[in-house]
């Protein structure tokens, strides 16, 4: 779990820095940043839901993170469609 967070977090930061240094040359990186962030939130939400036991607060947190992941995924798809088409 920690390794996944570390790898995805580093990849998101590197891609975000590269996309903001030269936005016109690296337009295709913006959707990848959103999609990786969605993946990171999805992994976190699955972990929260899987380890919740009977704790309803963890269940709500996991569902909220899953909704954020869906929102980021939708944003990544819309971004990719607007850039690549």
Structure report:
The chain has helices at residues 2-21, 29-50, 56-84. With 85 residues, it is an all-alpha fold.
Low-confidence stretches: none
What is the domain total for the residues? 1
> How many alpha or pi helices?
3
- The helix-and-strand class reads mainly alpha
The pLDDT mean sits at 92
Q: Helical residue percent?
A: over 70%
Write the element-wise H/E pattern from the N-terminal end onward. HHH
Q: What is the 3D form?
A: elongated
**Number of distinct beta strands:** 0
From the alpha-carbon coordinates, what is the Rg to the nearest angstrom?
15 Å
Distance between the termini: 36 Å
The biggest beta sheet reads:
none
Strand content: under 5%
Summarize the structure.
Helix content is 84%, strand content 0%. It has helices at residues 2-21, 29-50, 56-84. The protein contains three helices and no strands.
Short descriptors:
85 residues; mainly alpha; 3 helices; 84% helix
Task: Please specify the SSE layout and strand pairing.
Elements: H1 2-21, H2 29-50, H3 56-84
Helix pairs in contact: 1-2, 2-3
């Amino acid at each position: 779990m920690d390794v996944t967070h570390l790898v995805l977090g580093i990849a998101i930061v590197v891609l975000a820095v590269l996309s903001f240094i030269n936005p016109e040359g690296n337009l295709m990186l913006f959707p990848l940043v959103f999609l990786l962030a969605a993946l990171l939130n999805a992994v976190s939400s699955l972990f929260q839901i899987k380890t919740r036991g009977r704790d309803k607060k963890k269940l709500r947190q996991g569902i909220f993170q899953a909704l954020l992941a869906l929102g980021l995924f939708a944003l990544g798809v819309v971004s990719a469609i607007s850039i690549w088409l």
